[in-house]
Amino acid sequence: MAANQAADAKNPLLAGSLADADHDREIPEIDLLSPLAIRGVVFRNRIVVSPMCQYSATDGFANDWHLVHLGSRASGGVSLVIVEATAVTAQGRITPGDMGIWKDEHIEPLARIVRFVHSQGAVAGIQLAHAGRKASCDLPWRGGTRLTTAEQGGWPVVGPSAIPFNEGDPAPIALDAKGIDAVVDSFEAATRRALAAGFRVIEIHGAHGYLLHEFLSPLSNQRTDEYGGSLENRLRLLLRVAQRLRQAMPQDMPLFVRISATDWAEGGWDIQQSVELAKRLKPLGVDLIDVSSGALTPKARIPVGKGYQVPFAKQIRQEAQIMTGAVGMITEAAHANEIIVGGDADLVFLARELLREPYWALKAQQQLGGEETWPTQYGYAVKRRAK
Predict the structure, then answer these.
(1) Which of the ends of the chain has fewer CB neighbours closer than 10 A, N or C?
(2) Annotated catalytic, 210?
(3) pLDDT for 19-68, tens place per residue?
């Protein structure tokens, strides 16, 4: 607990009174391996498994692949394991292989994963999502093309406006007021199922061109009602979802929101609007903004490079005074550590690098001079045997 208080006192976004009380004490520098307390949850370090779709579910059900995939990262020393984008309705899946949480039968397979993640000292979180106009696609290793008929395994697709993601695809059905209300209800119902499964963090997926992001961006939202046009209107759906989820969640449970900080396209969603969104989400009880970018339009020109999205996380953290997570082309422990030490973000979300190396966090502990928390069962390989 003392270590947690020391870490929190140095963070101006957390307990300021604690920082004031401890100003005469020397407080250890916050780094990648420092614990972080958010509401009633303590993360053992700042390393997070970013939600990554596996496209391996049947009818939305988690299976052995998901258990082993996610469980191995929990054993690998991360602090938080976020389950992939999990559809709040069957219609909201990206592909037929997406994980789902739209019915009660989905709870127990997810709870099995939660129990194992927690047994390894990590925290289990889940990302709740609706794919919007990017739904009903084939599996990516089959090309990922739009499934346009029931015979192909497809289903009707919805969005804020009748504008398809790809030119030539059928236009999505523009949601009416009743349909929007049903989306909000679906996110709340999914949250209650996530609580029943034992998750300790919930993240709302408002990024990557999926439904909530589609409402934010003027490139995909050309509505003329209270959900379109002005920034105030385009924020409305995501703010409604966040407010409803916060009301359904225990007060000691963190709520994150993933956003695309920019569409990387002229006339689209941008960092200034993202800052304003974060300012609006904070008083609703959102604790952290997981800052990604892009994927709203296939025509975007994205300057991908080392840590290319980190400046967005830093700007939102500073201007909105809210905790952020940095993600994107972060592969080295030293770089991840610099992000935390420099105050650019509070958590580092790793995706593809953790697919390549499930034990990245344990190796980062070694490289940064921390205590290596290898599973006891692996002691033969990483620790000396007692004589």
Answers:
(1) C
(2) yes
(3) 444 444 455 589 999 999 999 999 999 999 999 999 999 999 999 999 99
What pLDDT does 23 receive? 45
* Residue 55 and residue 68 in contact, taking contact as beta carbons nearer than 8 Å: no
234 contacts 221 by C-beta, under 8 angstroms: yes
Give yes or no for a contact between 290 and 258, defined as CB atoms under 8 angstroms apart: yes
Judge if 234 and 197 occupy the same domain.
yes
Residue 280: what residue type? R
Using the predicted structure, report yes or no on whether residue 329 has a pLDDT greater than 50. yes
Which residues lie closer than 8 Å to 237 by C-beta, 6 or more apart? 180, 183, 184, 212, 215, 227
Question: Total structural domains in the chain?
Answer: 2
Same domain, 24 and 56: no
- Give me the domain span that covers residue 246: 31-371
Cα torsion 158, 162, 166, 170 to 10°: value is 80
Rounded mean pLDDT, 127-146 = 97
- Quickly state the pLDDT bin for 381 (edges 50, 70, 90): confident
- Alpha helix positions (H), 249-346: 271-281, 310-320, 333-341
Judge whether 262 lies within some domain: yes
Pairing of strands 47-49, 80-87: parallel
Does residue 4 carry a pLDDT above 50? no
Q: Say which of 210, 227, 308, 359 is annotated catalytic.
A: 210
Distance CA 208, CA 86 (A): 14
